Amino acid sequence: MYTYLMTIMLFCVGVVVTLISIPMISKMLDRSGMIRQNYRGDMIPVGLGIAFIPALVINSLILIYSNIVPDKILLVYMLLFASIAMSFAGIIDDSLGNRDVTGLVGHFKALYRGKLTTGAFKALLGGFVGLTIAVTISKSIPNIIVATLLVALSTNMMNLFDLRPGRAIKVYIILSIIIFIASSKFEREVMMLIVPAVLAYFYFDLKALTMMGDAGSNVLGVSLGVFIVSSFNLPVQIVCLILLVLIHALTEKFSLTKIIEQNKILNYIDRLGRGL
Fold first, then answer.
1. Phi/psi of residue 231, each to 5°?
2. Exposed end of the chain (fewer CB within 10 Å): N or C?
3. Distance, CA of 217 to CA of 205 (rounded, Å)
4. What is the DSSP string of the chain?
5. CA dist 53 to 35, 148, 224, Å?
C-alpha cells in the first residue's frame, strides 16, 4: 500500500547521494580537463549533470525492490534507460562538441550535407529514445508519434533554457510541480528517482560554481518527457507537444535570453538567487 514514507525516503536518499557525488565528480572532471568558460568568463567544470545518475540508480534499486507489479517496474526502467542514454549523449557533446553549428535546424542541415555533429547525434539518439519509450507505453500509431516527438523535443527544450545559471532547473522545478500534482501515487514515487538529485544540485548551478552541461540538461528534458507521456492522456500530450513546437520555432528566430530580459517578471524569476 502506498504511503508517503517511500516518497520521503527516496527524496532524502537522492539529496544525500547527490551532495556526496558532486564534489567527487567535479574533481574528476577537473582532472580530465573538462573545464569550460561560462557566460561570465569564469572557467568551471562542465558535465556535472552526470551527478544525477548515482542517485537515480540507487533510488531505482530501492523502488524496484519494493514493488512486484511489472507495469510499475517497467516505468522505472524506462526512466533509467532514457536518462542514462541521454546523459551519455550529453557528455559526448560536452567533451567533443563545438559551437560552429547551433540550433536544431542547423545540426540537421549539417547532417543533410553529410556532416554528423555531436548535436545531431544527440538529437537522433533523443528521437530513438523517445520512440523506444513510446512503443513501450502504447501500440497505437498516433500515440507513438506524439509520445516520440514529445520526449525528443522535451529533451532538447532544456538545452535551450540552459544558457544561464539556474534557468533550466527553475523551469524544470516549475513543470515538475505541475506534473507531480496531476500524477498518480506511483508516478510521484518515480519522479522522486531524479527530482531530488536536481534539487540537490540546484545551488551549484545557480551560483555558477559548475555547469551541468548537456549531460544534465538532457536528463532534465528526457525525464520531463517520460513523466508527461506516462502521466497524461493523448489530448494533454498533444497540447504539450504543440507548446514544445512553438518554443522551438520561437528560439530558432529569436534569442530566448533577450525575450526573458525584456520581460520584467520573467527576468526577475530568471535572476532570482543568482546574485547578479
1. -105, -25
2. N
3. 11
4. ---HHHHHHHHHHHHHHHHHHHHHHHHHHHHTT-EEE-TTS-EEEB-GGGGHHHHHHHHHHHHHHT---HHHHHHHHHHHHHHHHHHHHHHHHHHH--SSS-SHHHHHHHHHTT---HHHHHHHHHHHHHHHHHHHH---HHHHHHHHHHHHHHHHHHHHHTTSTTHHHHHHHHHHHHHHHHS-HHHHHHHTTTHHHHHHHHHHHHTTS-B-HHHHHHHHHHHHHHHHHHHS-HHHHHHHHHHHHHHHHHHHHS-HHHHHHTSHHHHHHHHTTT--
5. 20, 23, 15
Q: How confident is the model at residue 103 (pLDDT cuts 50, 70, 90)?
A: low
Percentage, residues of the chain above pLDDT 70: 95
Instruction: Tell me the one-letter amino acid at 214.
Output: D
- How far apart are the C-alpha atoms of 134 and 214, rounded to whole Å? 23
**In Å, how far are 162, 169, 170, 199 from 205, measured between CA atoms?**
10, 8, 10, 10
**Burial tier of 108 (Cβ tally within 10 Å: 0-12, 13-18, 19+):** middle
pLDDT digits (tens, 9 = 90+) for 146-199: 999 999 999 999 999 998 899 999 999 999 999 999 887 788 889 999 999 999
| CA dist 140 → 68, 81, 152, 218, 225 (Å) | 26, 22, 18, 26, 18
Q: What is the pLDDT of residue 129?
A: 94
Percent of the chain's residues with pLDDT above 90: 62
